Amino acid sequence: MKIWIFLQVFILVQVCASVDLVCGGFVRQIDSNSDPSASSNSSSILSKQHDSPATTTTTSVVPEVDLLEGFHMYLSRNFDENIEIWSDGILKRPMRRCSESVESGTGNQTDCLIIEENVEDIHGLFYVDYPMSQYAFRSLDTKAVAKDPLLVPVVEDYYLDVENMEGEFTVTFACVKELAGNSIPVQISFKITNSTTVHLWVIKKCGGGELKDVTLGFVNRYGEMVPFSASTQLKVNPLTTSTSVYAALHKSTSEIRFKTPIVQSSAPEIVEMEVRGAALGGVLSNELTMIEIQYSCKSRGVATVSLVLEIPPYDNLEASWKKDCGGTENELLRVGTQPMSGDVVENGRTTQVFALSYAGMTEDDSSRYIIPANRTSVTFYFHNSLDVFGDGVDMNIGTISITRGKPFVLSALVSPPPLFGSAYLGPTGGMLNAGETKHLEIKFVCKRVGTSKVLITLPTLNFRNIEFGFVKECRNPRKVHESSFLQTANSFLLVMVLGSALSVALLIYAWRTWKQKRLDQSRFVAVPFSTLD
User: Fold this and answer.
1) Could you tell me the CA-to-CA distances from 313 to 210, 227, 259, 288 in Å, in that order?
2) What distances in angstroms separate CA 145 from CA 184, 201, 503, one per listed residue?
3) How distant is the alpha carbon of residue 373 from its chain centre?
């Protein structure tokens, strides 16, 4: 039995030693039963092994040829494609042939990488198979030089990720207007090792003049993108505090930088603006670039807002629109005596036949709109229309006022809206949302024979009050009929009294009926009963 235990311990020790494991604790536990001194000796040896310093690993120098083969480089335009430039230790054939043709002056540029007019940046990406410390990457060693002195390309955004053994950089060409239409060779130099530098050529086409590959517009109240147009004029209503402007290029490979947006007001005493979003400039691409224009109204009035985007070497992108800070007419408002008509108010302005001022209320004037004596009410239709961009403004109308030139001849009031009458404006006004039509009904009660001017005033938030008037005729109140019903002040009063009395009588009858029913129910008493066999 002892021989068998000894063989097991011997085999375990050999296995631990072969896989370089620390099995001292397990060996000591087994051997301590047989030889304490042996356990003490083995514990001392393992302790020394653990206490001894770890072996220092020195990184060997990688041969030059292996470093070059382990280097991989690509160029990208707008990050949508990667063009292989260097791999397997050599410059790729198209790039090599391009460099040879440019340096020899043969003019054959078919193999060259062409940077189009509307692309002002290219991006370099690279990674290595060996530690970064073996290479000679330095931002100052990466250069870009053009053959035309007017073009001064710049290498920027140089970044090395040592842990992931990769890096990137950007070359900005910075074309100027004087080079518009020219194709200029640009050499990019990238140092790989102390003794090897990559030299490659690309061809930059410089643009200029009007940039047609772009859309500049704004976002309306429904979130729709509306391009600016010379044929139409945007006007921002008083209740809107900001405008979202967008810009985008049409091609996916396009990328142009723009400078800090310039926003100006024609009347700073009326409105001032601040820019948010892309307020410090940025890059135009096929993705939307948003610029937020925020307004701060100082006083009532209208001012012109202008926006300028500088995108060298192209002409500036410009747009302008109106900002209304209140106190003017709502040009989208239309009021008529028929649905969708504008015979009373058109484009926010009262028409001549309904134009009536408070100062002229007592004057005789037959040129106004006349409501004949046989009509006891009139309905006006208010339509808050949308502009050509599909935009508009919600109007908040306050309590409606009615002014009569001869109160002893006529009474007038705003008819309350019917039950579920959301399409009506009541005596206290209400909301008239953009694109919405509402009715306003005015009822008349004639007191005596005569005519009276009536002035209707609707106060609105941040707009000039809506005001229009007309003339109402009244005949002998006891002889004026409409639809076979007598329409006089006395008849109205009588109807109101009778209606109120009838309502009270119905309520009393219903209450007494309910009370009597409860009383009858309380008179019944449950009587116990039993069944007889």
Assistant:
1) 9, 23, 12, 21
2) 10, 10, 96
3) 56
Helices (H), 19-107: 24-31, 36-51, 64-69, 93-104
Confidence of residue 32 (pLDDT cuts 50, 70, 90): very low
Q: What sign does the CA torsion over 265, 268, 270, 273 have?
A: positive
CA-to-CA distance for 389 and 453, rounded, in angstroms? 39
Per residue in 329-384, pLDDT (tens digit) is: 888 889 999 998 999 999 889 999 999 888 878 777 667 899 999 999 999 999 99
Distance of CA 526 to the CA centre of its chain: 74
Distance CA 524, CA 310 (A): 95
Strands 166-172 and 121-128: antiparallel
Neighbours of 338 (CB within 10 A): 11
Summarised one tens digit per residue, pLDDT across range 482-518 is 444 444 445 555 666 777 788 888 888 887 887 777 7
Beta strand 317-324 with 235-236 is parallel
Tell me the CA distances in angstroms from 506 to 29, 106, 419, 513, one per residue in order. 105, 108, 21, 11
Judging by beta carbons within 10 Å of its beta carbon (0-12, 13-18, 19+), is residue 325 exposed, middle or buried? buried
Q: Report the amino acid identity of residue 343.
A: D
